[in-house]
Design brief:
The complex is a heterodimer. Chain A contains 6 helices and 11 strands. By secondary structure, chain A is an alpha+beta fold. Chain A folds into 2 domains: 108 residues, Ubiquitin-like (UB roll); 100 residues, no CATH class. Chain A has a 5-stranded mixed beta sheet with strand order 2-1-5-3-4, sandwiched between helices. In chain A, helix 2 runs antiparallel to helix 3. The longest helix of chain A has 17 residues. In chain B, a hairpin with a 5-residue loop joins strand 5 and strand 6. Classes of the chains: A alpha+beta, B alpha/beta. At the A-B interface, strand 4 and helix 2 of A face helix 13, helix 14 and helix 15 of B.
Chain lengths: 240, 488
Amino acid sequence: MKNDSVSLTINGKLVQAPAGQTLLLAAKENGIDIPTLCHHPELKPEGRCRLCVVEIGTAPRTRLVNSCTYPVEPGLAVETASAKVLAARRMVLELLLAQAPAAELIRQMAAEMGIRETRFQVGLPNQRCILCAQCVRTCREVVGVSALSLAFRTPGKLVTTPFMEESAACIGCGSCVFICPTNTIEYTEKDGVRTVWGREFELQPCRVCGNYIAPKAQLEHWARLTGDPVESFFVCRDCR
Amino acid sequence: MSKIEFPLVTRHLGAIDPESLTAYAAVGGYDSLKRALTEMTPEAVLEAVDQSGLRGRGGGGFPTGRKWRFCREAPGEAKFVVCNGSEGDPGAFLDRAVMEGDPHAIVEGMAIGAYAIGAGRGFIYVGHEYPLAAARLRQAIAQAKEQGFLGEKILGTAFSFDIQVRRGAGAYVCGEETALLNFIQGNIGEPRNRPPYPPQQGLWGQPTIINNVETWANVPVIIARGAPWFAAIGTEHSKGTKVFSLAGTVKQPGLVEVPMGTPLRQIIYDLGGGLKKDRAFKAVITSGPGGGVLPKQFLDIPVEFESFQEAGGNLGSGSMVVMDESCCMVDVARYFLKFSFDESCGKCTPCREGTKQLLEILTQITQGHGAEEHLTLMEELCATMASASLCGLGQSAVNPVLTTLKYFREEYEAHVREKRCPARVCRPLLKYTIDPETCTGCLVCLRECQVGAITGEFEEPQEIDQELCVKCGMCHAVCKFDAVKVES
């Protein structure tokens, strides 16, 4: 056995995993799928949705942990679909179904687990956001502008721009829209103007073909990152 | 002072001037730090805390010595000690009393802890609602620096240590240790996933120990009197004393400190003087919204971590709210869930959506819209919240619901099946009538009724129109002759 590799059992099967790997990835690499909502391979896991919980330890001392952040441990016994795990997963989906009744993905995942409707008080019928914060993390970790943030606590928690105003930091790239698993974020493009998070962004047409490339603010962000003049980004990828 | 009381942590409260280092030093203050730095190795200090059997007083009850050892042995560029001075549980005021009344004890305890684990910096988090505590602590830190108990090369040794006070912004969840770390780092006060635990990776990813006010205040005592002396107090697994802030319907509310193992009954009846108006004891809740509601069959259990856990309660932070027969247990559960819902940070689904739905169901029940299946649904939801929530807030927010469901199920059933509140608290389930025999026809209730539900002639018995009555309770409150009867 390699020094930096640990062996553990997942669903009774002995597996090897590199030290420091999460249970979620270790399971995945061994062909065991664990459902997730707030997890994304490009983002740091935050353990928000609790859908990926697994049961660790040996009876009677077992407990649930979220597999997206919990690291592999030598000799750890992991169950990814025990009765306790499935009960928690169903309950989480049933709660999310009440929170975000308009989220197609949640309805789908719930149906796959045999939940057609929730027994809980359903919130606003058009609600889609499940507060997974993938948009916030993408904006911060991938785009690098931190235009979005979570605000408030449980009674009014939401994803928003600072002070719920037009964000000066936003570059209109739309990554948040792209990453959102429940299509929550409003986004329109019309007559060379992109509107997202309540702010309008002028789109830059390609100097060669005239097709819109991206918002000017985004190209300026690229120019700042690379140190190249902004004009160097005024030709689209197809025409370059 | 009663013979039951055993003041260690609270021994200086009201006895010395909290704003004077000289006063603290006159009662042996900073002698423990001197002894630790000049006569003991860090390992010996750690060993003493370990041997004393001290366990964290913030609610978790984790052995303090073991926590410190994890931190001492964890690799890191820098190490930190943190004092958790957030005290948000309704009815808790013991940490406040210690911070305001004996701030130097906390500073001294932290300096000893920092020496033991090799930390150079410390932080004290003080809740937003405690301005005096923050001011006293800042003053104590400044005085300690002046006298060479903090700062560079303390008491001429190679050990340097400094403390900063950080004021909270009002969020209860920031009392959760990892949310507190995020707060100190300037981030949103959301708890972190564990592992890594703070002793491995805490503040800025460095090994950090977090102990609460009461735990830190115990440290100088352990060094001064020795671990064996301390370990002789209390029970087999819970050593030392526990401070409680006794509140609710007791005759003498206030701060009490008793050896671990003291029966609950002695605290409530001997120290608290029993219940107001000598009403019957119904339940006691310790540790606020994360605690369990314990009925009278638990009055004789000793206060210690294990016995409380077995009963479904939580020794917790030390708030102790006593309730008499006039309390409705469904309403009590609803009250605590409202608190947890308001204070849940909303990071994880089970706590965020779970507290919302539990509160919704409990509100329905107290308003007379409860159904039998609500009870099983709550139990099912509580099981998931307890096991799948990210932090202690969500995991323990279910305790008031689970314990009331367990010990006072008949009250829930009365609300659900008969739409009746046996304690006559849930207004929508009450019926107000006027006893024609007792009513003098003074018309006070008639004038006060905002919806005109009361009719009758002067000096004749009045009557309440049940269709119009909104059950505000005003007639009952203003009647001088006790003629308004409340039924359920």
